[in-house]
Design a protein that fits this description.
By secondary structure, the protein is α+β, with helices and mostly antiparallel strands. Helices cover 26% and strands 31% of the residues. 49% of the residues are buried. The strands form 9 sheets. It has a 7-stranded mixed beta sheet, sandwiched between helices. It has a 6-stranded antiparallel beta sheet with strand order 20-19-22-15-14-23, with helices on one face. Strands 25, 26, 27, 28 and 29 form a 5-stranded antiparallel beta sheet that branches. The structure holds guanosine-5'-diphosphate.
């Protein structure tokens, strides 16, 4: 790619090889099994990064690094992979950009809902995404989840209808699904020629050409494609689709609307530029199709990534704030500005050790530079920088704005941390992560491994913000908590593979939470006077409900030194400890505000321990008076079933305290949407199988925490009493 390094803009440093305009940071987002891994694989293949096509089914793909991912066929870890693409000159298809190379960083996003945090954190650093849909199943429940997340993080998208070679593939159905279920303003830019085993090519709507695949050397070079005139039998379809596309674009884009009004010609270049504008603003979703497995449609997909998805310059700048202040700061992509980046993924690589994947928003970073972490207020020297190209790890000397790379060997960095130049004290808005909904007790098979296990769990918790581990104070057991049974199973698997600790786990328990419904005051005293030197701690606190999702805030409002300054941290520790272990039923407290407001001390007998105890007692006392309630995780459940089982499945959901939110029947299939307490969902896989003779399927994801109704509260509290081990 020697031709590209010469092109620079004023925004770019002379060091960079690919200008910002020619950088794409994309994700491949999809429902599990839609073909995301295969699509990523084929992109890496066609961009020349891997020389042998690895099929997911062989357990031999490049992005699936982890053993258990290969086994499960699920991409759990978002791996950032870099590849390069030069558009073809000779087909006359892409004249406007001929010979210009692009750097594409692909962040693999997981499709399983247990890994929502992975999806969230990768969405945060993407500039655009390819949403992969299954050409047979269309929009599946979890594609909606991923789609909503992409919308939340304002990620422009193009859609790829995959598996066009499979029996039952139907492009129009998938397109209609996108419009209906996702409310997407979606229009084809490529239409399929044929389907199933007759899927032979695509019609390029913008250029009114046919792209037909030849035989090619599939294993080594992939399929070559030829650009031809549209066959006569597809001409009407192609023209109608172009008219529809122009109409759709002109509805949203003034420049095109004007040309239409004035009846002036709309050339492919003008139309492409308009599609790009609208796609970058998330006002239009261009739709393509292909078969990743058969290597069909992948080259045009990469061309479309380059043509329509934004560079870092085409989207609004990232924003952050000065630590501790509200004021917003814009972090515009510019190599000559101060360095600012976001650590979005921690990863322990078996060869290179601990890697921190980060996305650079502004400035540059070179080996030997020092980075600053505003959260910890610590500096660290960067001794090694790395880029992942397929399965290869490549050392690099420096990175520029818009790049995605990995730092090697740094400690004290957590997912969501901002890493910046010390003179640019800014914190980017980190992704938000949901509370864990399930927990279990865990212990090593061999007692001697306990320390090793704690260390392993600690490391895994650092990497994954939705995974937590802690010790139950009452029983001394280690508890792990996460987003679902599969999530915790994978954690155990990683313990075994990466830390060589085999662990036994207890039955999964619901991660209930406690909170309060009104404000109250509480007092705590810890006074012992048994001869000699005694103990004296005394604190008074106010508690009040905090906004949902805001967590716990503890403030010190003591005036006049009624509690001496040096004992405030001890009171705070006590409060935090009580909050962690719960008051009402032994579950963690969330969403409350605590104000430490008064107390007293003794010249001789006061000490830290006494004030810590006073803090615990004061919090408990206030909490009990503040209308405490128990909260339970509610799941969003979606069931797809043949119509005939709808009645039975609805009845079953009602019995599980479920609330039906939507029933959508189409082509003999019904999709039910409901919210059901997680506590009622154990064993659902078996239940639904027997209700529908194995023909219905379902998905679920955490939605909200809600108050446990009185009708089941007693049972829950009794169960909680019997099983203190796995409370969290
Ligand atoms: P992911 O879970 O979204 O990453 O999906 P995978 O890439 O693992 O694919 C799931 C399954 O679908 C695998 O068995 C693939 O071989 C298969 N698959 C993927 N793409 C295609 C395709 O275009 N056509 C056909 N027939 N199968 C495909």
């Amino acid at each position: 790619m020697s031709d590209v390094s010469a092109i620079n803009t004023t925004l770019n440093s002379p060091n960079r090889q690919y200008s910002l305009e020619r950088t794409r940071n994309i994700g491949i987002a999809a429902h599990i099994d839609a073909g995301k891994t295969t699509t990523t694989e084929r992109i890496l293949f066609y961009t020349g990064l891997i020389h042998k096509i690895g099929d997911v089914d062989d357990g031999n793909t490049v992005t699936d690094w982890m053993e258990q991912e290969k086994e499960r066929g699920i991409t759990i870890t978002s791996a950032a992979v870099t590849c390069f693409w030069t558009q073809k000159k000779d087909e006359g298809l892409f004249k406007s950009r001929e010979g210009i190379g692009h750097r594409i960083n692909i962040i693999d996003t997981p499709g399983h809902v247990d890994f929502t945090a992975e999806v969230e954190r990768s969405m945060r650093v993407l500039d655009g995404a390819v949403a992969v849909f299954c050409g047979v199943a269309g929009v599946q429940p979890q594609s909606e989840t991923v789609w909503r997340q992409a919308t939340k993080y304002k990620v422009p998208r193009i859609a790829f209808v995959n598996k066009m070679d499979r029996t039952g593939a139907n492009f129009d159905n998938a397109l209609n699904d996108m419009r209906k279920k996702l409310g997407a303003y979606a229009f084809p830019i490529y239409l399929p020629i044929g389907a199933e085993d007759k899927f032979a090519g695509v019609i390029d709507i913008v250029n009114q050409k046919a792209v037909v695949w030849g035989e090619g050397d599939i294993a080594n070079e992939g399929l070559k494609y030829e650009v031809r005139d549209i066959p006569a039998e597809h001409k009407d379809r192609a023209e109608a689709a172009l008219a529809e596309l122009i109409d759709a674009v002109s509805n949203k884009d003034d420049a095109i609307a004007e040309l239409v009004l004035e009846e002036k010609p709309i050339t492919p270049d003008i139309l492409k530029a308009a599609i790009r504008r609208l796609t970058c603003k998330i006002e239009l979703i261009p739709v393509l199709c292909g078969s990743a497995f058969k290597k069909k449609g992948v080259q045009v997909l990469i061309d479309s990534v380059v043509d329509y998805l934004p560079s870092p310059l085409d989207i609004p700048s990232a924003t952050g704030h000065v630590p501790g202040a509200e004021e917003k700061i814009e972090v515009a992509p510019n190599d000559n500005s101060k360095f600012c980046s976001l650590a979005f993924k921690l990863w322990t690589d078996p060869f290179a050790g601990k890697l921190v994947f980060f996305r650079v928003y502004s400035g540059q970073l070179k080996k030997g530079d020092t980075i600053y972490n505003p959260r910890t207020r610590k500096r660290e020297r960067v001794s090694r920088l790395m880029v992942i190209q397929g399965s290869e790890r490549k050392d690099v000397d420096g990175v520029c704005s818009g790049d995605i790379a990995a730092l090697v060997g740094l400690r004290n960095i957590t997912t969501g941390d901002t890493l910046c130049d010390e003179s640019f004290d800014v914190m980017l808005e980190p992704p938000t992560f949901p509370e864990p909904v399930i927990s279990m007790a865990i212990e090593p098979k061999s007692k001697a491994d306990r320390d090793k296990m704690s260390e392993g769990l600690q490391r895994l918790a650092e990497e994954d913000p939705t995974f937590r581990c802690f010790t139950n104070e009452e029983t001394g057991q280690l508890i792990i908590a996460g987003m679902g049974e599969l999530h915790l199973e994978i954690i155990r698997d990683r313990l075994k593979r990466e830390f060589r600790v085999e662990a036994d786990a207890g039955a999964p328990q619901i991660a209930y939470r406690e909170t309060i419904t009104k404000a109250a005051e509480g007092e705590g005293k810890f006074i012992r006077q048994s001869g000699g030197r005694g103990q004296y701690g005394h604190a008074i606190v106010d508690v009040m409900p905090n906004e949902k999702g805001k967590g716990v805030e503890v403030e010190n409002n003591v005036v006049g030194g009624t509690i001496p300054r040096e004992y405030i941290p001890a009171v705070r520790n006590g409060i935090e400890e009580a909050i962690k272990s719960g008051v009402y039923a032994g579950y963690q407290v969330i969403d409350i505000k605590v104000s430490i407001k008064d107390g007293s001390f003794h010249e001789v007998d006061s000490n830290e321990l006494a004030f810590k105890m006073a803090g615990i007692f004061a919090l408990k006392n206030a909490f009990e008076k503040a209308g405490p309630i128990l909260l339970e995780p509610i799941m969003k459940v979606e069931v797809t079933t043949p119509d005939e089982y709808q009645g039975d499945i609805l009845g079953d959901i009602n019995r599980r305290r479920g609330v039906i939110q939507g029933v959508d029947a189409k082509n003999g299939q019904t999709v039910l949407a409901a919210q059901v307490p997680l506590a009622e969902m154990f064993g659902y896989a078996t239940a639904i199988r027997s209700l529908s003779k194995g023909r219905a399927s379902y998905s679920m994801e955490p939605a909200v925490f809600e108050q446990v109704p009185n009708s089941v509260l007693t049972t829950v509290l009794e169960v909680a009493k019997k099983k203190p081990a796995a409370r969290s």
